[in-house]
Every structure is written in C-alpha cells, then in structure tokens.
Design brief:
Elements: E1 3-14, H1 53-65, E2 69-70, E3 76-80, E4 90-94, E5 100-106, E6 115-125, E7 129-133, E8 145-149, E9 156-162, H2 169-186, E10 198-208, E11 218-221, H3 226-245, E12 253-256, E13 267-270, E14 279-280, H4 291-300, H5 305-315, H6 318-326, H7 330-335, H8 340-348, H9 350-354, H10 363-372, H11 378-388, H12 396-399, H13 407-420, H14 422-429, H15 436-446, H16 453-465
Parallel strand pairs: 11-12
Antiparallel strand pairs: 1-9, 1-10, 2-5, 3-4, 3-14, 5-6, 6-9, 7-8, 10-11, 12-13
Helix pairs in contact: 1-4, 2-3, 2-6, 5-6, 11-15, 13-15, 13-16, 15-16
The chain binds adenosine-5'-diphosphate (ADP), zinc ion (ZN) and magnesium ion.
Length: 466
C-alpha cells in the first residue's frame, strides 16, 4: 500500500511595527531585559489596551497577499491560561471571528503547483520570554531558576493556519520559504527564525493514497529551520507508516524538538485537551476595517514572490526558482544576460559560497564573467568573487585577450609563491595533491585574477614535480 502524507502548518510571525500591539512600548529584541515595558504589557490593574493601527493594516496586507477575505468585523478574544510568561492570565487573540479568512497560496514544485488553503490569519499578542538559567543550553531541565523578560510581552503576532493541503515534506519546506519571503517583501516582518520573529508548528498524518480521510495527526513543535522541518516531517511520515503497517494506531501527541539537537530523538508528551475559556475581550471594540482601507492596501500590493517563482520556474525548475527568489537574488538573475541555467547556477552556488552581495554586482560585467566561465576554473571564480565582492573588477581586457599567459612573466611569481609556502610544497610532494588548487589560488590572488589558469596549472605541476 502507498501512504500519502497529509500536512498542515501553523505559523507565527512578529510584525515589525515600531510599537507593541496594545501599548506604546517599543518592539525590541536586544535591549536589556524588562526595559521596554509599561503598565499595559505588565498587566497592571486598571490599564487598558489600545490596538496598534499599523499592525491591523499589515495583517490586512498579509491577508490580501494570501488571497484571504478580509472580515468586515473581527473580534478580539481572551484566551485564558496560566503561565509565568503571561501576566494577565490570558492572551488577547482572535477566535471565531478572525481578521482574514479563506485564502490560498500556490507553491510551485516539481509535481505541479499545489494550492495550499489558508484557513485564517489572525492578530494576537506574543507572551513574555522565559529565560532558564543555570542549565546547559538554557533548557528548562536542570535549570536553577527561570527569569521572565517582559520586553517581548505584547509584540504583535500574526498566526496563519493552513488547511491540511500539503502532501510532502518538500512541499512544506517550499511553502514556508515562500511564505517567509512574502512577509519579508511586504515589509511587515523580518521573519528571522534565530530571532524568534518566525516560528511554526507542523501537523502530520498519513493516509492510504487515494483516500480522502483525515487520520490522527501528531504535532511537531520547536523546529528550528526549514531544512530541519523537512527532515523531521519525513521521519515522522516514516514512523507513522511503520505503525500502520504493523497493524497499530497513531496516537495524537505533540513531539517537541529541543533547539540545536538535530539528531536526538524528540521528547514526547501527550497532547492535553485544553480549555482556554475564550470570551470576547470586554476592553476592545470589534475591528471593522473600512472598505476604503482594504482597497487602498490591495492597490499597494507589490508583485508577490510567488508570481516571480512561477515565472522563473518555467525557464529553470521550481527549486532553483524558489531558491533564487527566497535568497533575493532573482532581481540580479533577471538583469544578467546569457544562458539562464548557467547564470542561475553561478548565483546559487558560487555566490552563496563566496558570500557575494548581489546588490553590489554589475549585471553586464557579471554576464561577461559567465561567458568567460568556460575558461576560468570554478575555484578561481569563487576566489575572484570573494576577493572583489563583485565581479566588476573584470575589466574588458581581462575578458578579452588580456590574460597573463606569458611564462616568463608568470614564472617568477610562481617561484615566489612556492618559496613562501615551503610547508605546503612538502605536503604536496608527500602526496597531498589537492594542494594544487591552493597554489593556483595564490597565483591568481597575486595577479589579481589575470593569470591564465591553464598556464599557471602547467607551470605549477612542472615545478612541483621536480
Ligand atoms: P485544532 O482546532 O485542534 O487546533 P485545526 O483544525 O485548527 O485543529 O488544525 C490545526 C492544524 O492542523 C491546521 O494547520 C490543519 O491543517 C492541521 N490538521 C488538521 N487535521 C490534520 C490531519 N488529519 N493531518 C494533518 N494535519 C492536520
Ligand atoms: Zn507596554
Ligand atoms: Mg486550531
């Protein structure tokens, strides 16, 4: 029997508004603990929340980018729970009348362009941050104390819930990449996982291929990168397959991943049925976004990265297109002349390896570089890029017939480099032939990339073998 994965995601993003969701404290990440607080976000009695208009507008913007319907009336609810990160004893969130509903995001992949339904995108506030001290890696286990930093309390947070429409770990990864790039380009969040401004949970079940039942799911939490999430989903699909094939039943549970431990088996804990006793927030009136506001925001939407991925996927492939767009290198890609595949490869391989800033690159010069690529070994290209920060140093003469190919000119340089690196020369002669690249690199650096690599290679081999 073939099993089909069924995956749904819940994503939280911080909005990068200047101030918090219901007070005028600054949104801060690296300020000293508990210095960005006030009576509202510390839940002093008698303090009252005032919604951040920018956060509302940006949530509408995201909703529109995700093809959602913007509710004419959205209601804030209190979600009640006790925890030290939550001084009010409840979180202000949205419940059965969220701001954005019923959207979709098309995620181009190798097997077509699956459309992922968006159940809702709603606005809420983040909790404070618990800091566990006295234990390894800041984990709660073995900690001697837990301190609370209220700077994060009240940071505007959008929660996006998808339908269980994803059918593979890679589709889930591509969805997350695209969603992240979308919020970044909308200018509403920096969506950085390391910073905690993007977090997500993954729900996974499987079912016999062809069936449309929804079986018991497990929830994977604390995944710390998209690539790791894809691996974890894959592993979870295999685990569930094993259970069904052995005649068992999958239990509903939450699998917690400890940050930073990629190989350790997850800790398991039973999902608790929780009663949050939601009720409408009595201190806030319902949001009723005016139609003119919604239309203005809609008119201001830029071309979305999903559309660009779709366009580029047609000439490349979905993964390269996704990587180009989500790394922000697609703008340069589109301006560089020459073979599409070659340009994309250099951008995604050499550029990434050398840490080249795409914004600093001259597309015309870069196009020439690609053309010259057949004559320049890959390693040289990486070095040249790394050394210059931009391929603009490649003057016309270098790309034309300006290469230094004259041995009488190159020999003294080669000699000097071999002399200065006698240790490596010995190692090379002792069998470490991989060091040839190192010597070539030194010559290229010395000649600012102008030496003919073929001649340099020949010279080096000759001298090193004697
Ligand atoms: P709950 O109300 O328990 O939070 P939801 O219906 O809101 O459950 O779904 C939460 C998330 O779980 C959504 O992203 C949804 O797509 C996903 N999900 C729901 N059922 C399944 C399932 N059987 N398999 C995989 N994912 C699921
Ligand atoms: Zn405050
Ligand atoms: Mg839910």
């Amino acid at each position: 029997m073939t099993w089909e994965p069924v995956i749904g995601l819940e994503i939280h993003i911080h909005l990068k508004t200047r101030t918090k969701m219901f007070c005028r404290c600054e949104v801060a990440y690296s300020e000293p603990e508990n210095t960005r607080t006030c009576p509202v976000c510390l839940a002093h009695p008698g303090s009252l929340p005032v919604p951040n208009a920018k956060a509302v507008e940006w949530t509408i913007k995201l909703g529109l980018a995700l093809g959602c319907r913007i509710a004419e009336r959205a209601v804030f609810h209190r979600k009640n729970y006790f925890y030290p990160d939550n001084p009010k004893g409840y979180q202000i969130s949205q419940y059965d009348e969220p701001l954005c509903v019923d959207g979709r995001l098309v995620v181009p992949g190798p097997d077509g362009e699956p459309e992922v339904g968006i159940v809702r995108a709603h606005l809420e506030e983040d909790a404070a941050k618990n800091v566990h001290t006295g234990s390894a890696q800041g984990r709660i286990a073995g900690a001697s104390a837990t301190l609370v930093d209220f700077n994060r309390a009240g940071t505007p947070l959008v929660e996006i819930v998808t339908r269980p429409d994803l059918r593979s770990a890679d589709d889930a990864r591509r969805f997350l990449q695209l969603l992240r790039q979308t919020v970044v380009e909308l200018g509403i969040s920096d969506a950085e996982m390391e910073k905690g401004s993007l977090r997500f949970d993954v729900n996974v079940s499987i079912r016999p291929q062809g069936s449309d039942e929804l079986r018991t799911r497990t929830e994977l939490k604390n995944l710390n990168s998209f690539a790791f999430a894809a691996k974890a989903i894959q592993r979870e699909v295999e685990r569930q397959t094993g259970i069904y094939e052995a005649g068992g039943e999958v239990e509903q549970e939450t699998l917690h991943f400890e940050p930073g431990t990629e190989s350790a088996p997850p800790l398991r804990s039973k999902e608790e049925a929780q009663d949050y006793r939601y009720f409408p927030e009595p201190d806030l009136v319902p949001l009723q976004p005016p139609a003119e506001l919604v239309e203005r925001v809609r008119a201001e939407l830029p071309e979305l990265p999903g559309a660009r991925i779709m366009r580029l996927a047609a000439e490349l492939d979905p993964d390269t297109a996704t990587d180009l767009v989500t790394s922000g290198r697609d703008a340069l890609f589109e301006r560089v002349p020459g073979d599409r595949r070659a340009v994309a490869n250099v951008l995604m391989n050499q550029f990434a390896a050398a840490g080249v800033d795409a914004a600093a690159v001259d597309p015309e010069e870069f196009g020439k570089l690609i053309e010259a690529r057949s004559r320049i070994p890959r390693e040289r290209l990486i070095e040249a890029l790394a050394a210059s920060g931009t391929p603009g140093f490649l003057a016309d003469d270098y790309l034309g017939d300006g290469l230094m190919a004259d041995t009488s000119e190159l020999e003294p340089i080669v000699d000097r480099i071999l002399e200065a690196n006698s240790g490596q020369v010995e190692a090379y002669r002792g069998g470490k032939e991989g060091l040839l690249g190192f010597f070539v690199g030194q010559v290229m650096r010395e000649t600012q990339g102008k030496a003919d690599p073929k001649v340099v290679n020949e010279l080096l081999r000759e001298k090193l073998s004697t």
